[in-house]
Amino acid sequence: MRLTIALKVLVALYLASSYKSLPLAYFFRFFNQVFQLLIVPYIKKKLGFTVKLGPPIKNEGPNLAIFTPQVFKTYNSPFECDMFFHKSNSTYFTELDIVRTRLMCTIFGEFFLQYYGRHGSFPYVPVSAVQATFKKEIKPYSRYNVVSRIVAWDNKWIFILSKFILPGQNDRTSCTAITRYILKQGRKTIEPREAMKACGLYSKEAEEISQKNFAMVEDFLNTGDIQDVDLYIPEVIPARD
């Protein structure tokens, strides 16, 4: 009897430690960011409370708040591991969904609420492309931080840099990812600068930094040529005399 109870407790603890991989956990984690960072502030504003959204903006010096990073702290749960008992590559992208949602809701929270007030719905913010480089494995139950920030934009795209960092003396990087985002109003594209200006985050200095960074990420995510490559082996044309 005691052994059965002990096993049940162990199973319960194991499942609790793997909460990120439980059914529907992804949806809860994702929409929890939206609820905390957009829905709650919207309700508070409706009730007459003063709500400050977005990153802090310095009163002196150039306005570079658009580049404010978000640090997301978590750990590698057992169900996220692959056959090598390391964090599975696929789970990095799941974690990125949560982290990027938090970043976008924090940076563009004021714009999202203004948009909702005008249109009765939030803008659509789909991911256009993601590219990741894996450098260091993450072992079971190892804690790590995901640091994300906007690094560049143009008339259409917003580029986000994310790093999975193992905290310690050397702060080793486990994975680096670049994401290309787009703001949509139905089929219409919302220019990133329009959203930034609505939040008071656009500045000449920030634009100059974006242009420098854009040169690095533009080719990094240029997948146009790859799309034209045929996945099937071409037929061998027999040689002629």
TrEMBL record:
Q: Pfam families per the record? A: 4HBT_2
Q: PANTHER family under this entry? A: PROTEIN THEM6, PTHR12475
Task: Provide the family line.
Answer: Belongs to the lcsJ thioesterase family.
Name of protein: Uncharacterized protein
Q: Which species is this UniProt entry from? A: Saccharomycopsis crataegensis
